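Fig. S4 source data, part A: sequence.
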Amino acid sequence: MATRQPQQKQQPPRRPRSRVERVTCPVHKHAPVVEDYRAGDMVCSECGLVVGDRVVDVGSEWRSFGNSDKKKDNKDRSRVGLEEDVLLEGDQGLTISAIPNCPNADVPWMRWQSRMGPSGSTRTLKSVYGKIANLASKLSLTDQVVTTAKAIFKEVEETGAVKTRSHDSCAAASVYIACRNLGVSRPYKEICRAADKTPKEIGRVYRKIRSAIKTAVKSSNPAENLGRYISRLGLEFVVRKAATYILEIGGKLSVLEGRQPTTKAAAALLLAINALGFSAEAPLPAVSRATAVSESAIKDAYKELYPFRQYLFPAELKSKVNFADCPNFGPGANEETGRRQITKLQLQPTIVETQATAAANKYEQAMAAS
Protein backbone atom coordinates (compact mmCIF):
# COMPACT_ATOMS: atom_id res chain seq x y z
CA MET A 1 0.00 0.00 0.00
CA ALA A 2 1.48 3.32 -1.07
CA THR A 3 2.14 5.90 1.59
CA ARG A 4 0.64 9.28 1.19
CA GLN A 5 3.13 12.10 0.89
CA PRO A 6 2.30 15.20 2.93
CA GLN A 7 1.58 18.19 0.81
CA GLN A 8 3.92 21.13 1.33
CA LYS A 9 2.35 24.51 1.72
CA GLN A 10 3.33 26.92 -0.96
CA GLN A 11 4.90 30.08 0.40
CA PRO A 12 3.66 33.30 -1.17
CA PRO A 13 6.33 35.09 -3.17
CA ARG A 14 8.29 37.52 -1.10
CA ARG A 15 7.92 41.14 -1.85
CA PRO A 16 11.24 42.79 -2.59
CA ARG A 17 12.26 45.27 0.05
CA SER A 18 12.50 48.86 -0.97
CA ARG A 19 15.82 50.46 -0.18
CA VAL A 20 14.99 54.03 0.87
CA GLU A 21 11.48 55.37 0.89
CA ARG A 22 11.37 58.93 -0.37
CA VAL A 23 9.22 61.28 1.69
CA THR A 24 6.87 63.20 -0.57
CA CYS A 25 3.81 65.32 -0.19
CA PRO A 26 0.56 63.35 -0.84
CA VAL A 27 -0.85 66.27 -2.86
CA HIS A 28 2.26 67.53 -4.66
CA LYS A 29 4.23 64.43 -5.52
CA HIS A 30 7.05 66.14 -7.36
CA ALA A 31 7.45 69.16 -5.09
CA PRO A 32 10.73 69.29 -3.18
CA VAL A 33 10.54 68.79 0.57
CA VAL A 34 12.27 71.33 2.82
CA GLU A 35 13.75 70.21 6.15
CA ASP A 36 13.24 72.50 9.12
CA TYR A 37 16.27 71.87 11.34
CA ARG A 38 14.96 73.94 14.24
CA ALA A 39 11.62 72.11 14.57
CA GLY A 40 12.77 68.76 13.17
CA ASP A 41 10.01 68.71 10.51
CA MET A 42 9.92 68.08 6.78
CA VAL A 43 7.62 70.53 5.02
CA CYS A 44 6.25 70.58 1.49
CA SER A 45 7.57 73.57 -0.42
CA GLU A 46 4.27 74.03 -2.33
CA CYS A 47 1.53 73.85 0.30
CA GLY A 48 3.45 73.87 3.59
CA LEU A 49 2.12 70.48 4.72
CA VAL A 50 4.26 68.76 7.36
CA VAL A 51 4.96 65.39 5.78
CA GLY A 52 7.46 64.20 8.42
CA ASP A 53 8.22 65.11 12.01
CA ARG A 54 10.79 64.28 14.68
CA VAL A 55 13.58 64.09 12.11
CA VAL A 56 17.00 63.43 13.58
CA ASP A 57 19.61 66.01 12.62
CA VAL A 58 22.73 64.17 11.44
CA GLY A 59 24.74 67.35 10.95
CA SER A 60 27.24 68.95 13.26
CA GLU A 61 26.24 69.73 16.82
CA TRP A 62 28.46 72.81 17.08
CA ARG A 63 27.89 76.03 15.22
CA SER A 64 30.55 78.44 14.02
CA PHE A 65 29.45 82.08 14.17
CA GLY A 66 32.68 83.62 12.93
CA ASN A 67 35.60 83.05 10.63
CA SER A 68 37.99 82.77 13.57
CA ASP A 69 36.73 79.32 14.48
CA LYS A 70 36.97 78.12 10.92
CA LYS A 71 40.57 79.27 10.58
CA LYS A 72 41.70 77.31 13.62
CA ASP A 73 40.72 73.97 12.17
CA ASN A 74 38.47 72.81 9.40
CA LYS A 75 37.24 69.79 11.34
CA ASP A 76 33.57 68.99 11.45
CA ARG A 77 32.67 68.94 15.14
CA SER A 78 30.26 66.05 15.00
CA ARG A 79 28.08 64.67 17.78
CA VAL A 80 29.09 61.06 17.18
CA GLY A 81 31.86 61.17 19.80
CA LEU A 82 35.61 61.57 19.78
CA GLU A 83 37.63 60.92 16.68
CA GLU A 84 39.24 57.53 16.34
CA ASP A 85 42.66 57.22 17.90
CA VAL A 86 45.09 55.77 15.38
CA LEU A 87 47.33 54.60 18.23
CA LEU A 88 44.68 52.19 19.50
CA GLU A 89 43.24 49.04 17.97
CA GLY A 90 39.74 47.62 17.59
CA ASP A 91 36.32 49.22 18.08
CA GLN A 92 36.62 52.35 20.22
CA GLY A 93 33.09 53.66 20.11
CA LEU A 94 30.73 50.88 21.32
CA THR A 95 29.85 51.13 25.02
CA ILE A 96 26.90 49.55 26.84
CA SER A 97 26.25 51.00 30.28
CA ALA A 98 24.65 49.28 33.23
CA ILE A 99 20.96 49.61 34.11
CA PRO A 100 20.35 52.45 36.59
CA ASN A 101 19.67 51.37 40.20
CA CYS A 102 20.43 47.75 39.24
CA PRO A 103 24.20 47.32 39.43
CA ASN A 104 24.02 43.51 39.77
CA ALA A 105 21.46 42.91 37.04
CA ASP A 106 22.24 39.84 34.94
CA VAL A 107 21.61 41.30 31.52
CA PRO A 108 22.63 39.30 28.42
CA TRP A 109 23.89 42.29 26.47
CA MET A 110 26.16 43.32 29.37
CA ARG A 111 27.77 39.89 29.25
CA TRP A 112 28.24 40.27 25.52
CA GLN A 113 29.82 43.66 26.10
CA SER A 114 32.40 42.11 28.42
CA ARG A 115 33.13 39.37 25.87
CA MET A 116 33.33 41.78 22.96
CA GLY A 117 35.41 44.32 24.89
CA PRO A 118 38.90 45.47 23.92
CA SER A 119 41.58 42.86 23.46
CA GLY A 120 44.56 42.40 25.73
CA SER A 121 46.84 44.48 23.51
CA THR A 122 44.34 47.35 23.48
CA ARG A 123 44.04 47.27 27.27
CA THR A 124 47.83 47.34 27.53
CA LEU A 125 48.06 50.29 25.16
CA LYS A 126 45.42 52.25 27.08
CA SER A 127 47.14 51.55 30.40
CA VAL A 128 50.58 52.64 29.19
CA TYR A 129 49.15 55.66 27.36
CA GLY A 130 47.55 56.83 30.60
CA LYS A 131 50.84 56.46 32.47
CA ILE A 132 52.67 58.36 29.72
CA ALA A 133 50.17 61.22 30.05
CA ASN A 134 50.59 61.30 33.84
CA LEU A 135 54.36 61.24 33.56
CA ALA A 136 54.31 64.04 30.99
CA SER A 137 52.13 66.11 33.31
CA LYS A 138 54.65 65.71 36.14
CA LEU A 139 57.58 66.68 33.90
CA SER A 140 55.69 69.52 32.11
CA LEU A 141 56.19 67.98 28.67
CA THR A 142 54.42 69.03 25.48
CA ASP A 143 51.78 67.11 23.54
CA GLN A 144 54.34 66.38 20.84
CA VAL A 145 56.47 64.43 23.31
CA VAL A 146 53.39 62.51 24.52
CA THR A 147 52.35 61.57 20.99
CA THR A 148 55.89 60.49 20.08
CA ALA A 149 56.18 58.36 23.23
CA LYS A 150 52.86 56.66 22.48
CA ALA A 151 53.93 55.90 18.92
CA ILE A 152 57.21 54.43 20.19
CA PHE A 153 55.47 52.13 22.64
CA LYS A 154 52.88 51.02 20.06
CA GLU A 155 55.69 50.04 17.70
CA VAL A 156 57.38 48.04 20.46
CA GLU A 157 54.15 46.45 21.69
CA GLU A 158 53.48 45.03 18.23
CA THR A 159 56.81 43.18 18.37
CA GLY A 160 56.06 41.74 21.82
CA ALA A 161 59.47 42.71 23.22
CA VAL A 162 58.19 44.18 26.51
CA LYS A 163 55.17 42.03 27.31
CA THR A 164 56.41 40.96 30.73
CA ARG A 165 57.64 44.39 31.83
CA SER A 166 56.01 46.89 34.16
CA HIS A 167 53.77 49.45 32.51
CA ASP A 168 55.38 52.26 34.53
CA SER A 169 58.83 51.29 33.30
CA CYS A 170 57.60 51.05 29.70
CA ALA A 171 56.04 54.50 29.94
CA ALA A 172 59.19 56.03 31.47
CA ALA A 173 61.49 54.47 28.84
CA SER A 174 59.22 55.62 25.99
CA VAL A 175 59.12 59.18 27.37
CA TYR A 176 62.91 59.22 27.75
CA ILE A 177 63.45 58.11 24.13
CA ALA A 178 60.89 60.66 22.90
CA CYS A 179 62.67 63.44 24.80
CA ARG A 180 66.03 62.49 23.32
CA ASN A 181 64.72 62.30 19.76
CA LEU A 182 62.92 65.65 20.05
CA GLY A 183 65.77 67.42 21.81
CA VAL A 184 63.86 68.04 25.04
CA SER A 185 66.22 68.30 28.01
CA ARG A 186 65.03 65.91 30.70
CA PRO A 187 67.73 64.02 32.65
CA TYR A 188 67.39 60.28 32.96
CA LYS A 189 67.33 60.27 36.75
CA GLU A 190 64.64 62.95 36.82
CA ILE A 191 62.37 60.74 34.70
CA CYS A 192 63.13 57.79 37.00
CA ARG A 193 62.11 59.80 40.06
CA ALA A 194 58.91 60.98 38.40
CA ALA A 195 58.02 57.39 37.44
CA ASP A 196 58.96 56.11 40.93
CA LYS A 197 61.17 53.40 39.41
CA THR A 198 64.84 52.58 39.79
CA PRO A 199 67.23 53.52 36.96
CA LYS A 200 68.26 49.88 36.67
CA GLU A 201 64.70 48.69 36.01
CA ILE A 202 63.96 51.42 33.47
CA GLY A 203 67.36 50.79 31.86
CA ARG A 204 66.42 47.18 31.09
CA VAL A 205 63.22 48.27 29.36
CA TYR A 206 65.07 51.07 27.56
CA ARG A 207 67.56 48.64 26.04
CA LYS A 208 64.77 46.32 24.88
CA ILE A 209 62.83 49.19 23.31
CA ARG A 210 65.94 50.58 21.65
CA SER A 211 66.71 47.23 20.01
CA ALA A 212 63.08 46.69 18.95
CA ILE A 213 62.22 50.00 17.27
CA LYS A 214 63.34 50.84 13.75
CA THR A 215 64.04 54.52 14.33
CA ALA A 216 67.45 55.42 15.71
CA VAL A 217 67.72 56.99 19.16
CA LYS A 218 69.67 60.24 19.13
CA SER A 219 72.61 60.61 21.46
CA SER A 220 72.03 63.01 24.33
CA ASN A 221 73.98 66.27 24.49
CA PRO A 222 75.46 67.00 27.94
CA ALA A 223 75.03 70.75 27.42
CA GLU A 224 71.24 70.47 27.13
CA ASN A 225 70.71 70.34 30.89
CA LEU A 226 73.12 73.12 31.83
CA GLY A 227 70.38 75.75 31.78
CA ARG A 228 68.32 73.83 34.34
CA TYR A 229 71.30 73.26 36.64
CA ILE A 230 72.44 76.87 36.53
CA SER A 231 68.89 78.05 37.24
CA ARG A 232 68.75 75.81 40.33
CA LEU A 233 72.08 77.18 41.56
CA GLY A 234 71.14 80.80 40.83
CA LEU A 235 74.26 81.50 38.72
CA GLU A 236 74.87 83.91 35.86
CA PHE A 237 74.83 83.19 32.15
CA VAL A 238 78.62 83.48 31.88
CA VAL A 239 78.93 80.22 33.84
CA ARG A 240 76.76 78.44 31.30
CA LYS A 241 78.81 79.86 28.45
CA ALA A 242 82.05 78.65 30.04
CA ALA A 243 80.63 75.19 30.88
CA THR A 244 79.35 74.74 27.32
CA TYR A 245 82.79 75.57 25.94
CA ILE A 246 84.40 73.15 28.39
CA LEU A 247 82.14 70.33 27.21
CA GLU A 248 82.86 71.15 23.56
CA ILE A 249 86.66 71.07 23.94
CA GLY A 250 86.49 68.16 26.38
CA GLY A 251 84.63 66.16 23.74
CA LYS A 252 87.38 66.87 21.21
CA LEU A 253 90.03 65.74 23.68
CA SER A 254 88.14 62.47 24.35
CA VAL A 255 88.92 62.59 28.07
CA LEU A 256 85.31 62.06 29.23
CA GLU A 257 84.43 59.08 27.06
CA GLY A 258 82.18 56.46 28.67
CA ARG A 259 80.66 58.76 31.29
CA GLN A 260 77.04 59.76 31.73
CA PRO A 261 75.92 63.08 30.16
CA THR A 262 74.86 64.44 33.54
CA THR A 263 78.29 63.57 35.00
CA LYS A 264 80.03 65.41 32.17
CA ALA A 265 77.82 68.46 32.68
CA ALA A 266 78.41 68.42 36.45
CA ALA A 267 82.21 68.25 36.07
CA ALA A 268 82.25 71.09 33.53
CA LEU A 269 79.97 73.14 35.76
CA LEU A 270 82.23 72.62 38.79
CA LEU A 271 85.32 73.71 36.86
CA ALA A 272 83.55 76.80 35.49
CA ILE A 273 82.24 77.83 38.93
CA ASN A 274 85.68 77.59 40.55
CA ALA A 275 87.55 79.32 37.70
CA LEU A 276 85.09 82.22 37.48
CA GLY A 277 84.98 82.79 41.24
CA PHE A 278 81.32 81.91 41.90
CA SER A 279 82.15 79.54 44.76
CA ALA A 280 80.45 81.43 47.60
CA GLU A 281 79.56 78.13 49.26
CA ALA A 282 81.12 74.71 48.87
CA PRO A 283 80.64 74.20 45.10
CA LEU A 284 80.99 70.42 45.00
CA PRO A 285 78.03 69.59 47.30
CA ALA A 286 75.91 72.30 45.64
CA VAL A 287 76.61 70.94 42.16
CA SER A 288 75.95 67.39 43.38
CA ARG A 289 72.52 68.40 44.70
CA ALA A 290 71.58 70.35 41.58
CA THR A 291 72.60 67.64 39.12
CA ALA A 292 71.69 64.56 41.23
CA VAL A 293 75.19 63.13 40.62
CA SER A 294 77.34 61.76 43.40
CA GLU A 295 80.36 63.77 44.54
CA SER A 296 82.75 60.91 43.79
CA ALA A 297 81.55 60.68 40.17
CA ILE A 298 81.95 64.44 39.74
CA LYS A 299 85.48 64.30 41.17
CA ASP A 300 86.52 61.49 38.83
CA ALA A 301 85.30 63.42 35.77
CA TYR A 302 86.81 66.66 37.09
CA LYS A 303 90.23 64.98 37.32
CA GLU A 304 90.15 64.40 33.56
CA LEU A 305 89.42 68.06 32.81
CA TYR A 306 91.76 69.77 35.27
CA PRO A 307 95.11 69.10 33.45
CA PHE A 308 93.73 70.82 30.32
CA ARG A 309 92.15 73.82 32.04
CA GLN A 310 94.18 76.28 29.92
CA TYR A 311 92.46 74.95 26.77
CA LEU A 312 88.92 74.73 28.12
CA PHE A 313 87.89 78.41 28.40
CA PRO A 314 87.10 80.89 25.60
CA ALA A 315 89.56 83.72 25.06
CA GLU A 316 86.98 86.43 25.81
CA LEU A 317 86.76 85.22 29.41
CA LYS A 318 90.50 85.62 30.01
CA SER A 319 90.06 88.56 32.38
CA LYS A 320 87.51 86.68 34.52
CA VAL A 321 89.24 83.32 34.85
CA ASN A 322 91.42 82.62 37.87
CA PHE A 323 92.80 79.10 38.24
CA ALA A 324 94.02 79.76 41.78
CA ASP A 325 90.59 78.74 43.13
CA CYS A 326 90.41 75.51 41.14
CA PRO A 327 91.06 72.44 43.34
CA ASN A 328 93.27 69.61 42.14
CA PHE A 329 91.83 66.23 43.13
CA GLY A 330 94.69 64.25 41.64
CA PRO A 331 95.81 62.92 38.24
CA GLY A 332 93.31 61.64 35.70
CA ALA A 333 93.39 58.35 33.84
CA ASN A 334 93.09 59.82 30.31
CA GLU A 335 95.75 62.52 30.47
CA GLU A 336 97.91 60.89 27.81
CA THR A 337 94.92 60.58 25.50
CA GLY A 338 94.24 64.28 25.90
CA ARG A 339 97.83 65.20 25.14
CA ARG A 340 97.76 63.17 21.93
CA GLN A 341 94.53 64.85 20.86
CA ILE A 342 96.01 68.30 21.50
CA THR A 343 98.99 67.45 19.28
CA LYS A 344 96.75 65.96 16.60
CA LEU A 345 94.31 68.88 16.53
CA GLN A 346 97.08 71.48 17.06
CA LEU A 347 95.18 73.23 19.83
CA GLN A 348 96.66 76.29 21.51
CA PRO A 349 95.98 77.35 25.11
CA THR A 350 93.47 80.19 25.25
CA ILE A 351 94.43 81.22 28.79
CA VAL A 352 98.08 81.01 29.85
CA GLU A 353 98.59 80.27 33.52
CA THR A 354 101.53 82.24 34.91
CA GLN A 355 103.91 80.91 37.50
CA ALA A 356 102.55 83.33 40.09
CA THR A 357 99.00 82.08 39.51
CA ALA A 358 100.10 78.47 39.68
CA ALA A 359 102.03 79.12 42.90
CA ALA A 360 99.00 80.86 44.44
CA ASN A 361 96.78 77.79 44.13
CA LYS A 362 95.84 77.20 47.74
CA TYR A 363 94.61 73.68 47.09
CA GLU A 364 97.91 72.52 45.58
CA GLN A 365 99.84 74.23 48.38
CA ALA A 366 97.80 72.35 50.98
CA MET A 367 98.38 69.04 49.17
CA ALA A 368 102.14 69.72 48.97
CA ALA A 369 102.30 70.57 52.67
CA SER A 370 100.51 67.36 53.60
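Fig. S4 source data, part B ends here. The first strand starts at residue 33 and ends at 36.
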